[in-house]
């Protein structure tokens, strides 16, 4: 059987803010259909990793590619050299990002929040984009909410709108940065259920989460990050139930 293609490839990634070295030589490949959970203590660089992968921040060193599309390549000193604007624009249509705090447009209806970018960014037909947005909202259990504005929804509903919005752009890879950390437990459950459903459909996902049971259930691979490095990674059950590294063990004892 042919190996699944690699959709995301990060090599020797380095990023500092001033003197603070936040990412120190991180390499991470994600294959089509894979679900990778990133866990680790606060301040360990998880959000910065996602922000660099999604072009919200630029790497100082290392390389980044989405499939065959090279976003940044290392020069002979390891410095990240970014491609030009047209490549970056292409790359932006290969991934979606779901934030902790939903980041919906507050004055737009739910439907417009989901259907706008496919039209404005990807130049798709408006009627068709709205049809697809309605189908995505139905899949998220939000068929009745399309005419509302975000503040009329619960946090869990808003996060599901944000997931529908990301899916509407047909990403190859979907990134989540602690998608449930702003939610109460019952609202968390409905969002995790939606993400589990996407995993069952073989959506390729990188999920930063503090929900250890969820990470163990949904992820093919768990990456434990601390102090800007990947301390340990492997199959979910191994890393979470049988960690090899003392730092991983200490973290899991603290959160579990
Ligand atoms: P995590 O998501 O694992 O909690 P972050 O990536 O948010 O970690 O942060 C890692 C480190 O980078 C922290 O020390 C944080 O203060 C610093 N940092 C993150 N973003 C910025 C920024 N935009 N400017 C300066 N420092 C930042
Ligand atoms: Mg974070």
Descriptive notes:
- With 256 residues, the chain is an alpha/beta fold.
- The chain is built from 9 helices and 11 strands.
- The chain has helices spanning 46-53, 85-92, 110-120, 126-139, 155-167, 185-200, 212-218, 236-241, 246-255; strands at 6-17, 20-31, 35-39, 61-66, 69-74, 80-82, 95-98, 173-177, 204-208, 221-226, 229-235.
- The chain has a 6-stranded mixed β-sheet, with helices on both faces.
- Strand 5 (69-74) and strand 6 (80-82) form a beta hairpin.
- The longest helix is centred in the C-terminal third of the chain and has 16 residues, at 185-200.
- It is globular and about 50 Å long.
- The relative contact order is 0.17.
- The mean pLDDT is 96.
- The structure holds adenosine-5'-diphosphate (ADP) and magnesium ion (MG).
- The site of magnesium ion has 2 residues, from helix 1.
